[in-house]
Structures are given as structure tokens and as C-alpha cells.
Amino acid sequence: MFRRLALPAAALAAVALLGAAPATAAPAAGSVCFWTGAGQHGTSWCYTPPGYTDVPESLRDKAASFRSDADTAVYAIDWARGTCYHRLIRAHDLADNWAWGARLDGVSDTTMGCEVG
Fold first, then answer.
1. What is the Rg, in whole angstroms, of the alpha carbon atoms belonging to the chain?
2. What is the mean pLDDT of each run of 10 residues along the chain (117 residues)?
3. Among 98, 102, 69, 97, which Cα is nearest to 85's?
4. pLDDT of the residue at 29
5. Is the dihedral of CA 55, 40, 113, 108 positive or negative?
6. Which residues, including other chains, have CB under 8 Å from residue 104's CB and lie 6 or more apart?
7. Which residues pair with 116 in a beta bridge?
8. How remote is the C-alpha of 2 from its chain's centroid?
9. Whole-angstrom distance, CA of residue 37 vs CA of residue 97
10. Is residue 94 classed exposed, middle or buried when 0-12, 13-18 and 19+ CB atoms within 10 A define those classes?
11. Helix (H), strand (E) at residue 28
């Protein structure tokens, strides 16, 4: 009898663990998504070209990972004092531990005339 109870208890524990896993947003077709956590976890936001867009405050200087489903390159923008810098994000690229995300202020489909950063 103990054996019958042990299997359902283990199955319930596995289901509980699966339910506790954080959900991650997959990029919509043609967009680039950024996450606050490494490995595409945490709070997310997605950019779809064209044009320039400021990232939301929750990700400003706090993006730890990204994934692109865009068919074109986009540029991460850092508005520094007196100038700006850009970092290329290639089409269909990803980074699970993105150090440059600590500088992220906006995203654009052009370099915005910024220096390479």
C-alpha cells in the first residue's frame, strides 16, 4: 500500500514544480524580446521594427538576455552623457547572459548616428 501512495505523491510533486516554473514570452514574429533575467527569464518586453522606441523602465539598464525573431538587424541604444552608443543585434540572434544590457535605453532599426559601443 505504501508503494501506491508514493507514486501519486511523486507525480503531484512533479506537477507542482512544473506549475511553479516562470513563464517566458516567446518573441512575436519579427520582434526582439528582452528579459531582466539571464536565460530569457524575468520581466520581458518586445520591440518590433521599424523606428526607435525607449525600453520600459523595468528593463532600462537591466536587460540580462534577449532573443530576436526579426528578419533584420536592430540596434540597442545607450544614451550616454553628451553622446550615444549602439550595439548590433543580428537577425535571429540571442544572448542568454548579455552584459551590454546593463546599458540598454532604447532599440532602433538604425544606428541613430550613435558611436559603436
1. 19
2. 44 39 58 98 97 98 98 97 96 97 98 97
3. 102
4. 80
5. negative
6. 34, 55, 59, 60, 61, 62, 63, 76, 77, 78
7. 86
8. 46
9. 8
10. middle
11. none
**Which residue type occupies 53?**
T
Q: Which residues contact 110 (CB under 8 A, 6 or more apart)?
A: 52, 75
pTM: 0.77
Provide the total of helices (H) and of strands (E) in the chain, helices listed first: 1, 9
Helix H or strand E segment including 57: none
The count of other CB atoms within 10 Å of the CB of residue 108 is 18
DSSP 16: H
